[in-house]
Amino acid sequence: MSRRLFVQAMTATLMAVGTFVHVQAQNALPANKVLRFVPHANLAVLDPIWTTAYVTRNHGYMIYDTLFSEDAKGKIQPQMVQSYSTSKDGKVWTFKLRSGLAFHDGKPVTSEDVAASLKRWSSRDTMGGVLFAFVDKLETPDANTLRMLMKEPCAIVLEALGKASSNVPFIMPARIAATPGTEQIKEHIGSGPFIFKADEFKPGAVAVYERNTKYVSRTEAPSGLAGGRPVNFDRVEWVIIRDPQTQFNAIVAGEVDIVEQPSFEQYDTLKKTAGVKVEDFAPAGFQYIMRFNHIHPPFNNPKIRQAAMLAVGQQAFINTQVGVPELGRLCRSIYPCSSQFADENTPHFTGVANPAKARELLKEAGYDGTPIVMMRPTDLSAITKLPLVAKQQLEAAGFKVDLQQMDWASLVARRAKKDPPSQGGWNMFFTTWAAGDIDSPLTSAMLNAKGATGWFGWQDEPRIEELKAKFARAHEGSEQKKIASDIQSIVFETASFVPLGEYRNPTVLRNNVSGLLQTPGIPVMWGLAKR
Amino acid sequence: MGSFLIRRLLAVLPVLLVVSLLVFFMLRLAPGDPAAVIAGNNATSEDIANIRAHMGLDKPIVAQYVLWLGQVLQGDLGYSYYLSKPVTALVAQRMEPTLALALGTVLMAVCIAVPLGSLAAWRMGGWLDRGLSAFSVAGFSVPVFVIAYLLIYVFAMQLQWLPVQGYKPISGAQSQGTWAWMRQLILPWLTLSTVYVALIARITRASVSEALQEDFIRTARAKGLSELAVLVRHALANAAVPIVTVIGIGVALLIGGVVVTETVYAIPGLGSLTVDAVLNRDFPVIQGLVLLFSLSYVLINLLVDTSYVWLDPRIRH
User: Fold this and answer.
1) What would you report as the CA-atom Rg of chain B, rounded to the nearest whole angstrom?
2) Which of B48, B85, B266 sits opposite A416 (nearest CB)?
3) How far apart are CA A439 and CA A520, in angstroms?
């Protein structure tokens, strides 16, 4: 290439860049018909049965519908179901679907679709698994009727079918639901209020939804996840912004309308910033927990677990991790304190650190000074400070702590290992749960006490499993509450895990956005409107 | 020249093979398990084992490597565990923002740094030279995210001339035209080019000042050429080799390493794809990206080496 040619080429390029040609004609929608929402995480996986990720669950609520839904008072209400009945012996449940329900591909929703979706859901979800242990078979006498034949009466049918959090029994076409639960679905077609625009989906950047103009909404007023689902937007964009400061700047500049979970550090500033407001769609919030490994020393000794439980106080965790007094709260119950099974009558657990008593118990238990391998996820800002507080509190009570820092992916791989802590295993980790995931003994992962096949930490406590089985058969609410409390007593008696307090993480909206519905932790886009 | 190019291109193959071996085995030996991430918070060890088996991660590592290498040789980089899409499609989707960011940054940096560095060398010790030295120190020292937030504060939040974040494609169905594309990139270009202006200007200054000491410069001046002609046609032309080398390295670094800028400006490029893949232990995506980055390094170096002949006819390969 000659230098003259090079100069000509460069000039042409600069001219092309400099000439702001062809602003393509956009099918511009009025500003109040487009909602830009920043979810709390990147939407990567689109199959809400394959993963339990909350962001995927929330995507599920955009495009799918459910047979039942939880209202604002926590009561299960029909959603896709028009009517339902149960036989006198409680062994036959019959569900009639509402007429006019259709998938986004135009095909009607049939009982075959429902049966296939529920089967796939039950293959992955804990509560679904419990429900289907009672189910003998599903029958579809006609396109609008599903019959569930039970081996024995089951008390949790509606609670399971109306389960709000992951995995949610979303209804999808039978051909898609035929995909094994271990594989991701390839098509994303539901019958919900929004249609997913697969051609515009860019993982890590944007997910686009359009209004489902053929959606048949219920006539009742919206309440929680239940009732009508009025949609006021033609287009909803989920904009992925990872950096909290950029989220803040984007909403203040009006580039987005809602940021689902602004960081706690920005809470006070956001409350004082013009043009935006802070609201809470999930007042039940989240709960932090500390989990022991029950199969290795020193926490295979219940007394040492109890000493650790006595050593930690919730206030310090809330102060350090949340840092905003009005967003944290102490809660001694293993069920969220705003939930129906909450019980703060906990003789074994006060939630207040008592290092002197813990030290005494530790001595009595014969703790030999073996360091506790405590895992800290450095990349998960939601819980990264918890281990630091625990280390300090446990050391004050006489424990030796080996704090090991790693990323979350390393932590979740390591917590699945049953090896001794000195050979790549562990003694303690921390996590957080949305209230909806732990408000029932049947959904709380920590209450899976089946030993080697149970949840990480592998507590082997048959009494909990027996009570859970009883819970699933208890038809009276009061009986269920009593069983839930009995389970909690065993949890604290055996120091299964330790609740470290609750917190809320409010949402920030532009002032011109209204109608945010309070739900069990799911940000829903129906009911919202923009001036 | 032809045989040089063929030799260099053939040498790419063993480089890529070694890279593939290293990345594949290092990922498997590092802590973390994609199955555990996929299984979620309320899984059990049994669930994770089932997922591992389903994904073929329970097979011997060597067998997994041979299988993957076979796919790569057929141009198939595999499927993302999470995104359920071919790695090649993911890379293609993220390539445009990264290339736009990298090439725009380099273009901006070169347009600013080369004249500045040349002028500083021409008037060494003057106010421009001292100012450039100060700017270079600042450019190297101030972290990129600080520059980004400052620019956002001034140009997006206060003056409201430019957007805070996002990326709009230059072409395709979602394009809103060239200006919309450019508006989103002006601040990221300015942010990233700060460090490259500092780097390229320093190298230019050093190379040009060295060239200005040469005898042929004295001859050029003695011939009565203007100072501009001396500076551009004689000094800068002879100082081009190290400058082009630094620019080449800059392009290669920008293709794989603009994570912070992509994060602050919410640009969906290869940097954020890499970070997500690493955090999720999405092995096929990490492997594909590392191979791509290695290939781009090798090819850019080859391009730079080839350009030496054009820039300096004394060089023969």
Assistant:
1) 24
2) B48
3) 10
Whether residue A182 lies within 8 A of chain B, CB to CB, comes out as yes
Residue contact B157–A20, C-beta within 8 A: no
Interface test with B, best of A168, A183, A201, A243 (most B CBs within 10 A): A243
Q: Mutation test of the interface with chain A: which of B48, B103, B165, choosing the one with the most A Cβ atoms within 10 A?
A: B165
For A246, the closest of B40, B50, B264 (CB atoms) is B264
Q: A156 with A131: CB under 8 angstroms?
A: yes
Q: Strands (DSSP E) along A90-221, which ranges?
A: 92-97, 135-142, 145-150, 170-171, 194-196, 206-211
What span, in angstroms and rounded, lies between the C-alpha atoms of B14 and B185? 37
DSSP type of residue B162: S
Token pair, residue A405, equals: 């820092």
Q: For the segment B172-226, what is each residue's pLDDT rounded down to a tens digit? A: 878 888 999 999 999 999 999 999 999 999 999 999 999 999 999 999 999 999 9
| pLDDT tens digits, one per residue of A397-411 | 999 999 999 999 899
Residues written for chain B: 317
Cross-chain Cβ contact A253/B156 below 8 Å: yes
Cβ of B127: how many Cβ atoms within 10 Å? 9
Q: Is A516 helix (H, G, I), strand (E, B) or coil?
A: coil
Q: Which of B246, B248, B138, B242 is nearest to B198 (CA)?
A: B138
Measure CA A237 to chain center.
21
The whole-number pLDDT of residue B254 equals: 84
Summary mean pLDDT of chain A: 92
CB B177 within 8 A of CB A20: yes
**Using the beta-carbon criterion (under 8 Å), do A240 and B173 form an inter-chain contact?**
no
Pull the structure tokens for residue A92.
């036959």
**pLDDT for res A141:** 96
Q: What angle do CA A98, A100, A106 make, to 5 degrees?
A: 130
- Within A446-524, strands assigned E span 497-503, 507-510, 513-514
Contact residues on chain B for A252, CB-CB shorter than 8 A: 157
Closest listed residue to residue A512, CA positions, set A34, A18, A116: A34
CA distance A239 to A209: 11
Beta carbons of A53 and B33 less than 8 Å apart:
no
What CA–CA distance (Å, rounded) separates A169 from A186? 18
Residue A255 and residue B165: Cβ atoms within 8 Å?
A: yes
Strands A372-377 and A401-406: parallel
A256 and A249 in contact (C-beta within 8 Å)? no
The span from the CA of A234 to the CA of A230, in Å, is: 12
Strands (E), A296-400: 328-329, 372-377
Measuring CA to CA, how many Å separate B273 from each of A12, A133, A177, B256, B268? Answer: 33, 41, 29, 10, 7
